[in-house]
Each structure stands twice: as C-alpha cells, then as structure tokens.
C-alpha cells in the first residue's frame, strides 16, 4: 500500500466545510478546515481523485517543505536545500506562483524570484545547466505560500484552476464561478431529489453544476489535462482507471429548468449544456421571472440575481421586490435560495430567511439566504408539521455574520427610494431585469465536440487507450456522456 502524504485543497471563503465533507466522502484522512483551504492526507490515487472528482476545490497542492521565512535569505536557503532533481527532470520547464501575507515580504513577485533563483542555482551547481522557466505551459508548477513567517512550498497538481471545467463554450457578462455554483448547490442539501429551477441562469452555470451533482458526474471528466500528468512519477494506468470508472454515476429522475430574459444568454446556456452532455436533464428557455408560475412538481429555486455591480439593471430594488412577490405567490410549499450582495436588496424581497450564509463572489462579500415558503398562515404550517428553521439553522443564525449592511449603491442604480422605484416598475414592466454583454469564453481552447451516434444519443464517454502511449491525451470527454435511457416527464489567486 502506497504511503500517505499531506495534501492541501484550496477553495473560496465560505466553502471550506462543504469541501471538507466532499473529501470525507471521497475517503480522505485527517481532514481539517482552514481559511480558504482544507488539509488532508492521502496517497497518489487520492490526489488524482481529488483533482478529478471534487466539485468545490480550486486547486490541489502537495507540500514539499514547511519552513520559517523571516527574510529573503531564509526563503532562498530553505528552497535550495530541497533536492529539485526529484521533481524537475533535465530539459523540463517550471513556473512558480506565490501568495504572500507578510510584513517582511510586501511583493509576491519578489518571493517568486527568490524561489526561482534558488532552484536555478542548485541545478547550475550540480549539473552545469539551468532549467528553463515557462509561465504559459510549464512541465512543473510550484506554489509558495507565506503567512506571517510560516512558509510552505508545494507542487501544484492541478495546473489550471479546477473551476475551469472544460464545458464552457461561450459566456455572458460576469458569469458565476463554477466552484461557487457547485458550493451553493451542495449547501442546499440538494442532490437531485426534486426538480431544480434557476430563473436567472445567465450562461447556465448553476444548471450545469446541478446536473453534474444530480448524476454524480466527476467535473474533471471535461478537462484536457492536469499538472500531475507531467510529473516524473505519474501513474498513467492508475489515472486511466479513475477516468474511465463511471460506476458511481447515477440516474436522475427529475429535471432542471433554467430561464433567462435575454435570448443571447439562453443560446449561450444551451450551448454549454450541450457541451456538458446534459441536454436530457436541463431545459433552457427564455422567460422573465415576473411571468413565473408555480411549478407542478416539488422544486427548489437557486438563483443569482444581479447586484448592481458587475451587471447593470435599470431598477435593482424593484427587481428584488418582484422576486419576493413571485416567491410568496407562486412558490409555496418549496424553498428558494438567493445569492446577493446588498442588504437593501434582501430587504426588498420582504421574506424572513431561514439561514444566511456568507460567501464571496469574486471580491464581493455576498450572502446566500434560504427562504422556506408555505401557503396560508405560519401557525397552520407549523401545526401540520412544517419546519421553517431547523435546529442547525437556528444555531447558525445565532452566530455573528460578516454581512455589511451599509453598502452604498453605485450611481447607475436608480436611487434607494423603494416607492418611487415601485412606481417606475409599474410604469415600465417591460424593462429588462438585466443587460448582458455577449462574449466568447476567455482563454478559449478548441472545445471537445459532441459525437453523435446513430441512435441520436448526445454522445458516449470515450475510454482511454492503455496501449497507445502517444495517444494518451486524445479528447477525453468530448461533449457528452451516455444518457439515462429511462423516460421521465488558502486565498485563491485565480
């Protein structure tokens, strides 16, 4: 049995506990949460699985050395003591990323240069040759983290941030990060037990991440590569076995409904859903939320409305008032989860949340709030056994949260007088909820294309060819997988 070693999984603020639970379910040992990180132990297989299967991890690091860094000389000397020949082979390239929180080191680039100098000097002294540095596509990625005088240098086993799943073909303005979307879904406790609705879906991120969770599809199946594939000790056969094992995938008996007012966003979402191979499970339609009607089946709503920051809207507060009215009138008996940035916006929803969870959307300190909705009077709902707030939610709500209540609106938002905004909304009900800018996915690569079979399935999952070493990196996932045949009505720098 291979010896276990220390690993670090990076994530966003607020998702640490969700990631820890994912790791426990994956079989990791010694799982401990920190600030934007979860540490754990595991063997090589666990490291591969963590990269391939986790929904809420941004990056998986394998520490090489922990040391005290009180000066630039400490960094240089400690890095130089590491036998870099074990990690960087002759003729291979490397790159270094730095994250620094220290009074001694004010510039992360300076730390990066010190690490590079130590590695290059060691190779020159031992071999007479220096390894090359490649920022764009290095063979080995290194990561150094300094907090105070505590330093850790680690191998980056992921490469590109794990939120870059590989299914996104196009994007709209300010798309929701895939890891954050997955974390929001997992926080609700939803794993496919009922229908899911996103009424403001943008480019389809929440819907697609929900589809992956519902079917228990590993998000790494879409990626073309991981950094650990270039390591000297890479076990190709082991990773092929992990990649080709779909035994944990499951059927999804319900459906995911995604809507948006903007037709360009709808078309973008449809393209991304198709690339993920989830067209059977996700419907994407153009619809304004003000036209929302109560679904026939039990459902959960998860939504990320505009905040008035990265996405503009002519009537922000009026939009949130409309959201509250629609939830009250059309969604009784179900629950809704809303992510937003401003207390003023939440106030216009006009509903009392069961729980408030602080989350960061990029640099914006947001909250994810749960609303338990019921028909009739609260007393009658409770008499019939309904639970508005669980004991766990009560305990969570009793804690002090970080939500900033007094943020000022940008000038583009139409003031904070609710009644004038309400009159404005009534006078202009046809106004767009939000305005999108359509653009291609940043750093766009040639996407893997769907493979259409004679029976009109979206595609089938390709298997790895163990015998052809030169063809190991042929397109992995393509754009689809076998559909279910049953019929059914640390601070992240990325």
Describe this structure in words.
The protein has 494 residues and is an alpha/beta fold. It folds into two domains: 152 residues, VC0802-like; 246 residues, Rossmann fold. It contains 13 helices and 17 strands. An eight-stranded mixed beta sheet has the order 2-3-1-4-8-7-5-6. The protein has a seven-stranded mixed beta sheet with strand order 12-11-10-13-14-16-15, sandwiched between helices. Helix 4 links the parallel strand 5 and strand 6. Helix 9 packs across helix 13. The longest helix is centred in the N-terminal third of the chain and has 20 residues. The two termini are 35 Å apart. About 18% of the residues have low confidence.
Quick overview:
This protein has 494 residues and is an alpha/beta fold. The protein is built from 13 helices and 17 strands.
Topology readout:
Blueprint (H helix, E strand, L loop, with lengths): L4 E6 L5 H11 L2 E5 L3 E6 L1 H10 L5 E10 L3 H9 L12 E9 L6 H20 L4 E2 L6 E8 L2 E7 L13 E3 L5 H11 L6 E4 L6 H11 L20 H9 L11 E5 L2 H13 L6 E5 L12 E5 L12 H15 L4 E6 L2 H7 L5 E7 L2 E9 L5 H6 L7 H8 L19 H10 L10 E3 L54
Parallel strand pairs: 5-6, 5-7, 10-11, 10-13, 11-12, 13-14
Antiparallel strand pairs: 1-3, 1-4, 2-3, 4-8, 7-8, 9-17, 14-16, 15-16
Helix pairs in contact: 2-7, 3-4, 5-6, 9-10, 9-13
Which descriptors apply to this entry?
alpha/beta, VC0802-like, Rossmann fold, elongated, 8-stranded mixed β-sheet, 494 residues
């Amino acid at each position: 049995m291979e010896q276990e070693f220390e690993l670090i999984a990076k994530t966003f603020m607020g998702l640490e506990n969700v990631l820890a639970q994912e790791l426990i379910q994956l079989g990791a040992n010694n799982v401990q949460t920190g600030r934007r990180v979860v540490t754990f132990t595991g063997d090589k297989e666990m490291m591969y699985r963590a990269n391939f299967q986790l929904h809420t991890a941004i990056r998986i690091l394998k520490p090489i050395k922990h040391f005290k860094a009180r000066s630039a000389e400490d960094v240089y000397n400690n890095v130089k003591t590491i036998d870099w020949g074990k990690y960087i082979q002759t003729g291979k390239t490397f790159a270094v990323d730095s994250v620094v929180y220290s009074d001694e080191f004010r510039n992360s680039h300076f730390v990066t240069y010190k690490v590079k100098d130590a590695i290059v000097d060691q190779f020159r002294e031992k071999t007479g040759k220096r390894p090359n540095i490649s920022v764009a596509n290095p063979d080995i990625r290194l990561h150094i983290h300094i907090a105070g005088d505590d330093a850790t240098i680690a191998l980056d086993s992921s490469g590109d941030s794990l939120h870059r799943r590989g299914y996104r073909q196009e994007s709209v303005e300010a798309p929701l990060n895939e890891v954050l979307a997955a974390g929001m879904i997992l926080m609700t406790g939803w794993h496919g037990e009922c229908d899911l609705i996103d009424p403001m879906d943008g480019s389809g991120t929440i819907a697609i991440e929900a589809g992956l969770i519902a079917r228990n599809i590993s998000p790494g199946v879409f990626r073309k590569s991981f950094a650990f594939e270039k390591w000297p000790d890479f076990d190709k056969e082991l990773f092929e076995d992990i990649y080709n094992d779909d035994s944990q995938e499951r059927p999804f008996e319900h459906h995911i409904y995604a809507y948006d007012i903007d037709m360009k966003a709808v078309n973008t979402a449809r393209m991304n859903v198709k690339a993920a191979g989830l067209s059977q499970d996700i419907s994407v339609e153009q619809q304004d939320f003000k036209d929302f009607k109560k679904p026939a089946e039990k459902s959960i709503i998860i939504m990320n409305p505009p905040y008035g920051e990265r996405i503009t809207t002519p009537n922000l507060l009026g939009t949130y008032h409309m959201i509250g009215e629609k939830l009250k009138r059309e969604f009784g008996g179900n629950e809704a989860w809303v992510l937003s940035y401003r207390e003023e916006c939440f106030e216009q929803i006009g509903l009392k949340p069961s729980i408030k969870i602080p989350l960061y959307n990029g640099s914006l300190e947001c909250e994810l709030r749960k609303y338990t909705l019921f028909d009739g009077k609260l007393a009658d709902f409770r008499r019939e056994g309904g639970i508005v707030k669980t004991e766990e939610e009560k305990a969570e709500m009793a804690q002090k949260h970080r939500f900033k209540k007094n943020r000022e609106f940008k000038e583009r938002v139409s003031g904070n007088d609710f009644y004038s905004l309400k009159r404005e909304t009534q006078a202009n009900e046809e106004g767009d909820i939000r305005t999108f800018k359509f653009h291609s996915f940043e750093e766009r690569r040639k996407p893997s294309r769907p493979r259409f079979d004679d029976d009109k399935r979206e595609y089938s999952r390709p298997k790895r060819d163990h015998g052809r070493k030169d063809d190991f990196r042929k397109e992995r996932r393509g754009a689809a997988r076998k559909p279910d045949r049953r019929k059914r009505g640390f601070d992240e720098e990325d």
